[in-house]
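Please produce the structure of this protein holding coenzyme A.
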Amino acid sequence: MPLRRKKAPAPEQVGPKPKGTGKITTRPGSRHAAVLGVGAYRPRRVVDNHEICEVLDSTDEWIRERSGIITRHFAGEGESVIDMAEAAAKGAIEMAGIAPEQIGCVIVATVTHPYQTPAAGPLLAVRIGADGAAAFDISAACAGYCHGVALASDMVRGGTTEYALVVGVERLSDFTDPTDRGTAFIFADGAGAAVIGPSETEGIGPTIWGSDGSQWDVIAQRDSWLEVRDQDLGWPAIVMQGQTVFRWAVWGMAPVAKRALDAAGVKIEDLDAFIPHQANMRIIDAMAKQLKLPEDVVIARDIATTGNTSAASVPLATERLIREGLAPRGGLALQLGFGAGLSYAAQVIRLP
Ligand SMILES: CC(C)(COP(=O)(O)OP(=O)(O)OC[C@H]1O[C@@H](n2cnc3c(N)ncnc32)[C@H](O)[C@@H]1OP(=O)(O)O)[C@@H](O)C(=O)NCCC(=O)NCCS
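Below is the modeled complex.
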C-alpha cells in the first residue's frame, strides 16, 4: 500500500481577517445632463464711458471703438458678490422649476469675493435655501463659469448630485484701478447662474478645456497679498497685457471652439447661438470671422451694455439671448470662456 501523506494542518490565521473582498457601491447618475434654467443680475447703477473718463485718461469714442463698450453696471455700496449671486441664482432656480432644497451642490466661480476664506459658496447655499448642500468656489477667472458647467454636468451624470447650481459672479470694480488705461473701461460687475440637472436627452456636450500657466502673469492681480503686506504697496488691482491677451484670444480660442463643436458632434451651421466670453467686442468679431460662423447664428454681444464681467459674462449673455428672444429655447449654443490663468473651457449646450 502506498504511503499516504498526512494532510498538513491549516496555518493558524495570524492578524486581522483580510477585508479586500468588501464591495463599494455607487449611486447611479443620470444618463444625460442639461442646463435647466439660467438667471442674471445686473446691478442697478449704470456707468457710461463719460463717467469712466472723469478719472481715466481716455474718451468715449476710443472706448467704444476699441472695446465696443457703451455702458456697464457697477454694484452699489455694500452690494456684495453674495448678494448679486443670490439674485441670479433665484432666477435660474425659478426657470428650472425645482425647489432650492433639491440642489445638492453650489459652485461659485469668482475672482473677486473679498475673503481669502471662507468661500462664497456655503453662504450662498444658505441664502438661497439650499442649506447643507456641498458648496465651494472655483478660481478660473473668465473661464470659471464654463469650468463650473463641466464639473456640474459630470456630477449629475456621475451620480454625485442630482441638481447643481453654477454661479459666475464678479465685483470687478473693487479690483480695478480706475486710472489704469488697460482695464478701467473694460471691467464691470454682475452675476449669472445656471441650474444643471438630469435630462432625457443630452444637453451638455464634452468640455474642451485647458490652461497655459507659462502666461500666468498676462492677466493677474498686480501684487501678491504678501507683497502688499510686506512692501506697503496699496490695493492690488487686476492688470492685463492687453495686446498679448487679444492675440491669444483671437488665434488661440477659435480652434478650441471648433474642438468643442467636433466633440459634441455638432456642425457649425446647426448652432443657434455663439456665446463667447464678453471680453472685448473686437475679440468677439474676430473669433466669429475665424470660425466662419454662418450669418444666422446669433452672436452674444452683451458686452456693449454690460462690460466685461469675467466669470459672470457667459451666463449673463445667455440669459439675455433667451429673455430677449434672440435665441430659441431648446436651441444649440456654443459657449466659450477664456481669461486669466491663462485658462479656457468650451462646450456646446442646449439652451433651457
Ligand atoms: C486693452 C485694449 C482695448 C487696448 O487696445 P489696443 O488697440 O491694444 O491699444 P494699444 O495698447 O495698442 O494702444 C493704442 C493706442 O491707444 C492708446 N491707448 C491705450 N489705452 C487707452 C485708453 N484707455 N484710452 C485712450 N487711449 C488709449 C495708446 O496710448 C496708444 O496710442 P498711440 O497709438 O498714440 O501710441 C486691447 O488690447 C484689448 O482689448 N485687449 C484684450 C483685453 C481683453 O479683452 N481682456 C479680457 C480678457 S479676459
